[in-house]
Amino acid sequence: MTYVQWVFETYFGMTPTVARARMLTVHRQGRAVVASGGRESMERHVQALHGYGLRATLEQED
């Protein structure tokens, strides 16, 4: 789990507190929103997370 926190801190620039909270959300609920924005940038984030060995998906906001 610390690896996921490290990725969130390193890639997204989250503070350790925020990264840990998001990591725990993923651990407990199976998913968490870690970024939002335009489609192209979100697709880059998904690809980057895949490069770190993490599962990530893109979902349109309601």
TrEMBL record:
<dbReference type="GO" id="GO:0008233">
    <property type="term" value="F:peptidase activity"/>
</dbReference>
<dbReference type="InterPro" id="IPR014719">
    <property type="entry name" value="Ribosomal_bL12_C/ClpS-like"/>
</dbReference>
<dbReference type="Pfam" id="PF02617">
    <property type="entry name" value="ClpS"/>
</dbReference>
<keyword id="KW-0645">Protease</keyword>
<dbReference type="InterPro" id="IPR003769">
    <property type="entry name" value="ClpS_core"/>
</dbReference>
<feature type="domain" description="Adaptor protein ClpS core">
    <location>
        <begin position="1"/>
        <end position="56"/>
    </location>
</feature>
<keyword id="KW-0378">Hydrolase</keyword>
<protein>
    <submittedName>
        <fullName>ATP-dependent Clp protease adapter ClpS</fullName>
    </submittedName>
</protein>
<dbReference type="GO" id="GO:0030163">
    <property type="term" value="P:protein catabolic process"/>
</dbReference>
<dbReference type="GO" id="GO:0006508">
    <property type="term" value="P:proteolysis"/>
</dbReference>
